[in-house]
Specification:
Layout (H helix, E strand, L loop, with lengths): L1 E4 H10 L6 H17 L1 H11 L11 H10 L2 H19 L6 E4 L5 E8 L2 E5 L8 H14 L3 E5 L10 H10 L3 E3 L3 H10 L9 E3 L4 H10 L4 E2 L7 E6 L5 H12 L6 E6 L2 H15 L5 H11 L1 E4 L3 H11 L3 E5 L15 E4 L5 H6 L25 E8 L2 H17 L3 H8 L8
Parallel strand pairs: 1-11, 4-5, 4-7, 5-6, 7-8, 9-10, 9-12, 10-11, 12-13
Antiparallel strand pairs: 2-3, 3-14
Amino acid sequence: MQITNYDDYLDSLKNSSETFDRKTDDIVLDIIQNVRKNGDSAVYDYAKKFDQVDLDSLIVTQAEMDEAVKIVSDDFTIAMKEAAKNIQEFHEQQVEKSWYFNKANGIMLGQQVTPLDRVGVYVPGGKAAYPSTVLMNVLPAKIAGVKEIYMTTPPQKDGKINPHILYAAFLAGVDKIYKIGGAQAVAAYAYGTESVKRVDKIVGPGNMFVARAKKWVYGDVAIDMIAGPSEICVVADETAPAKYVAADLLSQAEHDEEARSICIATSASVAKEIQQEVNKQLNKLDRVEIAKPSIENHGVIIVVDTMAKAYELVNEIAPEHLQLMFKNASEALHEIKHAGAIFIGNYSPEPLGDYMAGPNHTLPTSGTAKFASPLGVYDFTKKSSIIRYSEEALRASADSIIEIATMEGLTAHAESIRIRQKKGDS
């Protein structure tokens, strides 16, 4: 994990650019077109090609669900129920209500909030199983009132789904589960197949093929966000235990070789101590083969000499996860403009947010926290504007409407108003 200074890192941020992988897009577009054309047949072929499994059905049966519920440990079910309770409690605070208000002359205006009809959740399989992702994506949709919630996740080599993921789906109340991974799952959600119903919105993280597929189908279907590699930024001073900081940086590095672990240290001595602790802990990790290239290629500690520079860097990075591990950290919240989730103090590590605290762990990555928010109940609803005018109220505004419509050259718009000005023509 390299150590650098404020000026060099800021320059590297401002001069960096995302590389466009045309080869990945070509693969993804081919998959999307194949699924659109051939439906289930294409999906079965991709299961054999990418997952090395011959499936009898794309749909998880009730028997498979019942078996998973029996297999998982009591300790796991207790932990998941506790997490679900906290997630439910937090997201219930996000529920928006329809509202209306009356003005003079019989004018009523408002906003009607309605849930989406059908949502498709993607849960990654790949390098690890993520039952927590099931809860984080399904429970807000449930709270929003979505009628049908489907889930898709890659099958294991035996053609089954990880039982911990199935238990999470059972606990969250998923309506139907599909054994489909990758870009083909996104295409099936977006356009439908013989087995998969077309959905209104696709949510959930995935690999680069899933992310690019979501980008390409957006417009035909809604998506939550295009997630990049997981990332963490820790701001640490001398009061932050180096072993805590190192452990938190490594908790992100074990996600993926492309994961980014960034630390902003308030002195060279703090930076050096954290670097040594990262090296000490790294080789003890079970997933060292993933974490090591992440730390070596994307891990960095930036030394700053003022907190103002630390805040500037944070807002430029706009990290997915931000940990504030310094003296009086709560007082610095007003300095943070861009971050997906903010963890305050030495005892609020990022994994707390991943699993238990309650706020959603599906967060904007790759600097998109500058304009995007965590997944929430609001992602599963839509709003309709409500307008009701009385005859008297419309007549009072008619001349102004006609004036604007005429200026824009939309004379039929003007006539729609003018015709209502004529007495006795209703």
